[in-house]
Amino acid sequence: MRPRWHELGRRCGALTALSAFVLVTDEDKAFAQSNGASRELPPIRITGGETPRRNKPPAPRTSKPVAANDRIVVYPAAAQASDDRSVASGAKGPPSMASEITVSGEELNARPATRPGEALEAVPGLIVTQHSGEGKANQYFLRGYNLDHGTDLAIYVDDVPVNMRTHAHGQGYADLNWLIPETIAAMDVRKGPYFADEGDFASVGSVHIGLIDRTEKGLAQVTAGSFGYRRLLGMDSAKLGDGALLVAGEIGTYNGPWDNPDNVRKLNGLVRYSQGTATDGLSVTGMAYVNTWNSTDQVPQRAITSGLLDRFGSEDRSDGGNTNRFALSGGVAQSDDLGSWKANAYVVKSQLDLYNNFTYFLGDSVLGDQFHQHDDRLMAGANISRTLEGSFAGRPMQTTFGLQSRYDAIDLALTNTFQRGFLANIRSDKVGEGSVGLYAENTVRWTDWFRTTMGWRGDYYATDVTSLFNSNNSGRADATLGSPKFRMVLGPFNRTEFFLGAGYGMHSNDARGATTTEDPSDPTTKLSPSPLLVRTRGAEVGIRSRTIPGLDTSFSVFILDQDSEILFSGDAGDTEATRASRRYGFEWTNHYRPKSWIDIDGNLAMTHARFRGYDSDQAEVHASLAGYPEAQIGTAPGNYIPNAPPMVASAGVTLGEKTGWFGGLRWRYLASSPLTEDNAFRSSPTSVFNGRLGYRIDNGWRIQLDVLNLFNTRANQISYAYGSLLRTDTLYNLCTSGTAPAAVCQNGVMDYVLHPVEPLTFRATMAGTF
Fold first, then answer.
1. What CATH number corresponds to the domain at position 124?
2. Residue 612: helix, strand or coil by DSSP?
3. Is the peptide bond between 396 and the residue preceding it cis, with omega within 30 degrees of 0?
4. Which of 427, 505, 539, 630 is the most buried (most CB within 10 A)?
5. H helices of 32-162, where?
6. More confident residue, 19 or 667
7. What are phi and psi of 227, to 5 degrees?
8. If pLDDT is split at 50, 70 and 90, which confidence band does 750 have?
9. Pick from 604, 589, 593, 439: nearest CA to 100
10. What is the average pLDDT value for the chain, to the nearest integer?
11. Range of 405's domain?
């Protein structure tokens, strides 16, 4: 006799894909709620040995009941009418790794935040910061990685990739300033290269943000705060045919505490049509975003301590930028007698013009080192996957096949500028980069307490680079990589599961680096092209338990290796080699809801990160700076990885019911980190508290006060250590007079370079529903 299966109801689409075959036990039912946020399961239907027919029209959505201790604590107007799985997002199974979670949009919006990208700090162990103006992509830290603006962290919104490959400012550039937090339905989080459907930039982790499809009521919201912060938000939905039309828009301004105001001017809009459910439906989404701003970039510590600059001062007041993004995407998901399938397509037109000056007068002692990075691209892609349900040796089995494709047509330019005025070209390129990814993944439920998933992924990348100023840097390149994957789950035993994952991953390099043979600034200097694709490898073991009522706790131990990687340096226009690296550590994540009106979370992540091998080139640089300690300190060879945080911690509490008083307090901590390979420079730890207090009326009106940096901590958003020159430096005079050696003048004065956390900030919000 074939085992009895259960199929989770399609209306919520929360746990369908894998658990469609799960053998029913009492522990299964109890533990299946461990999918990140605490929420009720959809109805369970017991079936016999046949897969039920699925070709009938989807049932209309209805509001699901909410358990007493699962009450939503925030924004009822912005919540979806039933579940938080986006229409056409496809089926979602239970977690297959201890570090895999889902966070609801309600939970995200209950957290006081300074900027939209900080919604990602709901990911345990992830820090989101900013070292420039509020229009530039954030900087991300996770699992001992300084992910820069998105490298090795794959981010998707509505199944559209956010990371930009071969970007003018940096590989994997992931700007989320266009994201409207109130439109987030749920955020799915994975970590490690163990998932066959995750490709480029996903070695450390991936974040998939789903959007809401409609609102229960219209929402009008106004926020005003310190340092010229103003924000207007409107959102509403209406029934249109058999579906719903959602419209949302925001206008924002911000100056910040800087001596040179940011003068942010942001306009953002979203229109979305959806029909059906997560597993049987379709959606079409359009987005538009424009932003312009000034930047107070990081400044050297010696300029602050000497009184040359205020803590919130700027060395180059003309830094800043402007950007825009226009996107159209669509998705469809269907289920049938054999299983289910899902497809989506997208086209994104984006542009960025960015002006930065990070080294001040190191390269140009008269006009300074400001440079302009220009990125203008059209990105298009399509994905499709098919899931088949069946059996193997009488055991439930599920197999998924997928195809992912993407093409970027990019115009890139790097120029020297003075106060945003053109000085000289460094390089200009036209790049076409395409990729195709094929994957297959098979899951077998061997017993009611043991399941395995085996997968394989193959990626093919091809690029054509036309260098407009140096034909020797033009060319074509292609590469392929195959990546096996494996995951295993044991349990539940007493509401506890054990997880094991291992796999190979990959990371793409800037296409220009794969064809560059001459230094754009000095064609006589020959360069070796970098590989287009680079291998990563990782493994992880973990445990997840809900033995204690109301507490969801998980613990994971991981290791992640990255091969010798040669990255394109967008700030310099050439390639820069790095050695192989290894990171290992653990994450401990806790979410506790003892009562309906209190929600507590606490997370701790610790990582040991080191380069592997010996850097002989760095040793030569260090020797060339002998006799000039201000330039030599911090340049010795070593195995520390700059900006790799050894510890990240966070905790928070959210209080309140659906009406009446509510509030919250959050804390995040970023430990002291090495800033140079020899550990001569280390950042100061950063510890910041944010708070919220408000009141909700049963008619949907809400008033709240957010207090950011509650204790007015003097900390830094980001710290670096590198060489630069100021006109007040002694070395500046030695270099301009020709006294100091060329190597010393090219390196400059090694110093801390920092961007401070904003001081105590207040933001008051009033919102009403209609």
1. 2.40.170.20
2. coil
3. no
4. 505
5. 105-109
6. 667
7. 60, 40
8. very high
9. 589
10. 89
11. 5-769
